[in-house]
Amino acid sequence: MAPSTNTAQQKLAESTSAVPSSTAAQQSDNVAHALAGAGGGLFSMALTYPLITLSTRAQVESKRAQSSTLKAARRILRSEGLPGLYAGLESALFGISVTNFVYYYWYEWTRSFFEKAALKSGRASKKLTTIESMIAGAIAGSATVLITNPIWVVNTRMTARKSESEEQVLPGAKPAKAPSTIGTLLALIRDEGPARLFAGVMPALVLVINPILQYTVFEQLKNMLEKKRRVTPTDAFYLGALGKLLATSITYPYITVKSRMHVAGKDGPKEDMFTTFRNIIREEGYAGLYGGIGPKVTQSVITAAFLFAFKDALYTLTVNARKKIALGRK
């Protein structure tokens, strides 16, 4: 038999051995990836949340968008104290956990589908192509947006709430206590109706391109590196950061528009995505679409870097724990 044929069959055998042997095993692996993604997202979000607060305030408060990040941080600390930098943290941690769980579950489900299709077609490698990575990201991202948009509407409302100090509070009086996550949710439904929980869903769906770009860059760079050596959590840290830097820089105007639509109150006009775009450009210029981009890009890159590093480590722990449990039952 020709050497090239032997090599192709060897590669096919190696690829086949890496694919879970049953639907139950594949389902378990998908859940392991989803749990690892949720845990990684939770840890990375907790580490970088003050940057999210600064970015969101700059996105929705156009008059303050031109102030430096340091000045914005000082203003929040002066008027609201340290808790002001963590407004909405509870809903954000819940939101990122659900978001990442849903995203990684659907991403791994779609990924396994393409891998099995590659094996059936006789392709030597089961690695996803660029197009397959983008399709997997689009499916996972769209499912995630539709399921989790209400969580992020509530979180943006809490994060962007205006300070109750200075002009609104009499000297010696205490500022009004910030509403809880549940309180914000109930007030939004009561005052504006359940439909407001899906405000900004259109730009959010457009922003599905963000993780598509991020994970496509990550996967392709990872595949290139794996040809030379094993990918470590440190490698994943840097590759994740690079992918997120590119994705967030390209899609940031849609992030701004989504935040503006999230905080549009019941008394204001219910603008669609394109109207919001036009109004921002007309009133603030194109720079208005990039308000708060500094802290946002910094936060996104750090979060993505830690997410990929944490996810790889948590996935390994989850798989090892599953193996120990399986061995213990025998």
UniProtKB/TrEMBL annotation:
Family: Belongs to the mitochondrial carrier (TC 2.A.29) family.
Transmembrane segments: 31-54, 84-106, 134-154, 197-216, 236-255
Region annotation (Disordered) ranges: 1-24
Localization, UniProt: Peroxisome membrane
GO MF annotation terms: ADP transmembrane transporter activity; AMP transmembrane transporter activity; ATP transmembrane transporter activity; coenzyme A transmembrane transporter activity; FAD transmembrane transporter activity; FMN transmembrane transporter activity; NAD transmembrane transporter activity
GO annotations of cellular component type: peroxisomal membrane
InterPro entries for the chain: MCP_dom_sf, MCP_transmembrane, Mito/Peroxisomal_Carrier
Highest taxon listed in the record's lineage: Eukaryota
Membrane topology: Multi-pass membrane protein
Protein name: Mitochondrial carrier
Source species of the chain: Lophiostoma macrostomum CBS 122681
Keywords noted in UniProt: Membrane, Mitochondrion, Mitochondrion inner membrane, Peroxisome, Repeat, Transmembrane, Transmembrane helix, Transport
Residue spans of the Solcar repeats: 28-113, 128-224, 231-317
